[in-house]
Amino acid sequence: MTKLFGVYVHWPYCARICPYCDFNVYKNRAIDAEAWNAALTGDLENYAARTQGRKLTSLYFGGGTPSLAPLPVIEGVIETCERLWGFEPGAEITLEANPTDAEQSRFEAFACAGVNRLSLGVQSLRDDALKFLGRDHDATAAKRAIEAAQGAFPRVTFDLIYGRPGQTLEDWREELSEALSLGAKHLSLYQLTIEAGTAFAKAVDKGRWAPPEDDVTADMYDAAQEMTAAAGLPAYEISNHAAPDEESRHNLVYWTYGDYVGVGPGAHGRLTEDGVRIATETALAPPDYLAGAPHQETTLTQAEAAMERLSMGLRLTAGMSFTEKDPFFAEAGALERLDRLIGDGLLQWDGETLAATAGGRRILNRLLYELFA
After folding, report:
1. Would you call 302 exposed, middle or buried from its count of C-beta atoms within 10 A (0-12, 13-18, 19+)?
2. Averaged in consecutive runs of 10 residues, what is the pLDDT profile of the chain (373 residues)?
3. Helix (H) or strand (E) holding 271
4. Domains in the chain: boundaries
5. 4 touches 57 (CB < 8 A)
6. Bridge partner list, 95
7. What's this model's pTM, rounded to 2 decimal places?
8. How many CB atoms within 10 Å of residue 125?
9. Is there a cis peptide before residue 351, judged by omega within 30 degrees of 0?
10. Domain 302-373 - what CATH class?
11. For residue 346, which of 43, 93, 189, 273 sits 20 to 30 Å off, Cα-Cα?
């Protein structure tokens, strides 16, 4: 199997800031396409010099809302990646977009530029929920965008958020059933989480509303596993569901602990040089990034890299490669902790592959805490 290698491009601007979002995003503004192309190209060239001889299995435009970026910026990044690395056969080039009419009108142009997978931030198929989530589209626009995307791109995925206040299990079943009827071969289903510093966190702290109880959201998670599997889109990762061969190749770079370059404001990357894992991060503020602010680089210890690899790999239903030679076992008491979690029915290990069980994936954060305690 080809070792996965990707590029992530962070576009930091949105038309509006969603109240649940804690990403590095800013309100959309006038853009100097030439300045952005110059900054992104310079970063990509620097990283290409450190990763010679590799070809890209994926390129991902995330954000923010990268479909709001000037088309020449998207075209420029794709052309630069082709020049510097080249793409493996069947490489995935994904662009995130919102389901607004303005963005739908650009779908064919993005496809002509080389984008072959569109990720739509639908979030809900219910108008009241979309209003609560601060989205600037309604359910009709969402379904229209899905149809338009399927006509323009060979691969389409969209997101839904469940566990909203007042949402019942039956509400979620009905909404997910409708989503599955729309014909997408990949779905990302996320439980609403209240992130510190967001507008939602402030509202919850003030008692304006509260998310559903944990047992309700657990039932919603279980329903999603059951319904997507029955529809031919089983879970391959905690929050992601796909038909065969429709898995997100870029996200698999992360989950299989492959190398990836991160460019754009606040983008993270991971490189392996001389057997050592290096974490990279760019300047957060767009003006600083455009001015060429230096990237931060951190050499991970063996223990830190082992923790990251397990944290990523155990998200996958199929698990991860894991033998007694893994650096994890260098930690004091590691084998005892592993045996206890296996005995508790939360992990499975055959000496070659380590995987979280269905029960383990439901409480993965707690499982990882106990694994590294």
Report:
1. middle
2. 86 90 86 96 98 97 94 98 97 96 90 98 97 94 96 97 96 98 98 90 91 92 97 98 98 97 98 96 97 96 93 97 92 92 97 96 93 87
3. strand 268-273
4. 5-253, 302-373
5. yes
6. 61, 118
7. 0.95
8. 21
9. no
10. mainly alpha
11. 189
